[in-house]
Amino acid sequence: MPVVTRIAPSPTGDPHVGTAYVGLFNYALARKAGGRFVLRLEDTDRQRYQAEAEDRILAMLDWLGLRPDEGPELGGPHGPYRQSERLAIYRAHAEILIEEGQAYRAFETPEELEAMRREQRRLGKDPGYDGRGRALSAEEQARRAAAGEPHVVRLRTPDAGETGFVDLLRGEVRIPNAEIRDTVLLKSDGYPTYHLAVVVDDHLMGVTHVMRAEEWVTSTPIHVLLYQAFGWALPTFVHLPLLRNPDANKTKISKRKMDTSVESYRQQGILPEALLNFLGTMGWSMPDGREVFSLDDMVAAFDPARISLGGPVFDLKRLRHLNARYLRDVLSLEALAERLRPWLEARDLTVDDEDYLLDALDVVRPRAETLSELVDQLSPFLQPRLRYDDDARRRLAAAQGYLEDLERAFAALEWFDDDDVDELLRDYVQRQAVPMGKVMMPLRVALTGTTQAPGVVDLVVIMGKERTLERIGQALQVISEGLPDDDPERLKAEAEAAAKEAQRAKRGRRPVGATDRG
Ligand code: GLU
User: Domain ends where: 240, 264, 294?
Assistant: First the structure.
């Protein structure tokens, strides 16, 4: 039998890293076995449903490269792949169980159920459905349903004994049947519950391995009862460990404590392959212990039996480190430049010299952990006109003479390679008999606009003669203009304040703080 795995996310919000995690493992299992990976959207919770969440799930899988073989967009032999489009299938299956006496229609009103629970609490009993609807004859059920009376469909579950299943990682898991209590299969609005829909779909879609988050372990015995009621063979169940916060209690990751949105990691400039690699280390490792591995490596080595249950920690620092390794060591410079393209565009940074970009990238990439940081680092190389921050302006103010000298010296220098530039700068500093930083820092500022930039020699060599002279020239020009602060944000704020002031004066009102005494 071909291996079929699936993910069944609910389109209810920003796609969660947990969905990416479960998706990765299901993808790896299916690919490794040469099987199929199915995407099914569990959109029956109409209150929490968000149409745009559907697109986001598809976009996330696409970004990560976890492409399903069957799904709502692609179709497939067992569609539709949206549960809301399968309502007739669930109803038909509930009918089968009703006909066989394995399920029944229950007509209790919400008020009646609430009164039942109150009474149970009063008597100190566990609250739960007490099976009162079982007594109604099949004819009576049919009659009331035909008369349009609202009702649910419940599975007739055993009162005594236990139901269990074998989890590939946990071994045998059993729960007392007394905890199950005639689970609802169809709600009064005709929508299936998760339990009915998941079992019917997994069966009809030929799913052989149900691999999902740990939180579903306790639902699985209910599913087992349903498989038995239908007379269907059980799939293999694998419950993945929960991802945990790196706090002392190692609580389950949640939006409150941790950024759980995949989209947000994408926006921060985490690479999809780094995120996958990171998720691949959550409870799993390569047999050879390698920390950096690709999706294909993982697929080739994947064995779900090697998943360990020891609460993997979603540690952001580790994710950023791993991402940095991809930026620095895994991607070629050319590939990295390609990834940066949209980021540069978004910042209006144009590249007209591809080699220059690659050289600059080579120098700055060890200094960044994300694409976004990388663009920050690259920006001074690519900006046509620099802006100098306060610290930078102070440095320039003190260095006019040095910059004039260096402008002349660089103009006379023939070869802009490491050795020659290094020698020129060393000689100059020695002749001036000043500490190195007194010259290097203003030069760095002149070249990049900031004090936080890579080594000056690297900068000069990468920028080459023309750019180096142009930037020193710009800095000298600004020094000669008295170093005006041209920060557009500040200028805008000032202009706005001035306009407001003028308006006030026009209306004859006095600005706050003005007094009558002149
Ligand atoms: N809709 C469920 C979820 O979003 C799927 C659970 C399952 O995989 O069975 O987690």
Answer: 240
